[in-house]
Amino acid sequence: MIKNDLFLKALKGETVERPPVWMMRQAGRYLPDFMKLKEKYDFFTRCRTPELATEITVMPIEQVGTDAAILFSDILVVPQAMQIDVQMKPGLGPWIPNPIRSQKELDQVIVPDVNEELGYVYDAIKMTKQALNDEIPLIGFAGSPWTILCYVVQGQGSKNFDKAKELCFTQPQIAHSLLQKITDTTIAYLKGKVKAGVDAIQLFDSWGGMLSPTDYQKFSWQYMQQIIDALKNDIPVIAFGKGCWFALREMSQSGASALGVDWTCSAQNARYLSGGNITLQGNFDPSRLFSPPKDIKKMVHQMIDEFGKDKYIVNLGHGILPNIPVENAKAFVDAVKEY
Ligand code: CP3
């Protein structure tokens, strides 16, 4: 039994005395102790060393006091395991030297044995669960197949992922076959995470909002749905699609336990579009954490009033920014606890 079960209760839609709170990308990024580790170890070393992943995962729990932990890792460990070379370049971000844009390149992409290729993630989960000592739940995650495709086809981050979309619209059979390989790998990967001990799963569709509503169904949602179908009987799943308010209706009927919303969709619209019954998570503008702590607290209280305290998980509308002062992040979390 987990002592602070507010997050798990909210995922079940149960009544709570206050909503739970965590922040997307809370592990690392803005914390000074993390910056020190960052100087010593490169990105994938931090991901691949269970001791480091554990240490980074628990940092925000001790220093900011969130109601859930999210494992330190990255969505791009999945394409790495599929034999795609993925590097993290300081200042640039993800870098894929040989992007997947032809049948020949696709043929080299494998659906791996996840225990062999991603066992280090499972080790990190087991170690983190021990460190958390059943105080709060641990969230495992994966990127959506579409968001992974964006990186491995584009080759790096992008404002519009034009090359990724070009592949979808000129060679759809290659795109779909790549999406299916990512989906199959992700399902096996996440089942392994469940076995290793995570308490919930979040799917990050960070670039779903790049697609039109029709193309979203075709190139993103149908693969998200396969993953949700494969997991929903084993564990609560949160589906987060940035810019995907237009899909909230389908998402609410998917079997996901909760839906993430970003700050461009009001609480009222999100409740309306999602049918009013499913747990929602979000949606504070991450840049609003630059406001003075007393303003943050006022805005958080208003946000809870608008979503309602039940069937609601307080979060940002996307990941926390690297240059947010720790005291502002703490004000965000404290505001929820004071509600
Ligand atoms: O709370 C956490 O931060 C947990 C771990 C986590 C990371 N990445 C660590 C990370 C999580 C949940 C992610 C998810 C992720 N990674 C997403 C989806 C969420 C989102 O923000 O949209 C995406 C799109 C990625 C891909 C990725 N990884 C990018 C674009 C970058 C570079 C820029 C950046 O900082 O976001 C990364 C690198 C990365 N992943 C860092 C961290 C802490 C920073 C690099 C470093 O620490 O050396």
Fill in the keyword field for this structure:
single chain; 339 residues; alpha/beta; TIM Barrel; 7-stranded parallel sheet; two-stranded antiparallel ribbon; 9 strands; 49% helix; globular; binds coproporphyrinogen III
Write the layout of secondary structure elements.
Elements: H1 6-12, H2 32-40, H3 43-48, H4 50-63, E1 69-70, H5 77-81, E2 87-89, E3 93-95, H6 103-107, H7 114-132, E4 138-143, H8 145-154, H9 162-170, H10 172-196, E5 200-205, H11 213-231, E6 237-241, H12 248-252, E7 258-260, H13 267-273, E8 279-284, H14 293-307, E9 312-316, H15 326-337
Parallel strand pairs: 1-4, 4-5, 5-6, 6-7, 7-8, 8-9
Antiparallel strand pairs: 2-3
Bound molecules: coproporphyrinogen III.
The site of coproporphyrinogen III (CP3) has 22 residues, from strand 3 and strand 4.
Q: What features would you describe in this structure?
A:
This protein is α/β, with parallel strands linked by helices and 339 residues long. It has one domain: TIM Barrel, CATH 3.20.20. 49% of the residues lie in helices and 12% in strands. The chain has a seven-stranded parallel β-sheet, with helices on both faces. The protein has a two-stranded antiparallel sheet with strand order 2-3. The longest helix is centred in the middle third of the chain and has 25 residues, at 172-196. The model has no long low-confidence stretch (mean pLDDT 97). Coproporphyrinogen III binds at residues 25-29, 38, 43, 70, 72-76, 88, 93-94, 141, 143, 157, 204, 206, 319. Coproporphyrinogen III is lined by residues 25-29, 38, 43, 70, 72-76, 88, 93-94, 141, 143, 157, 204, 206, 319.
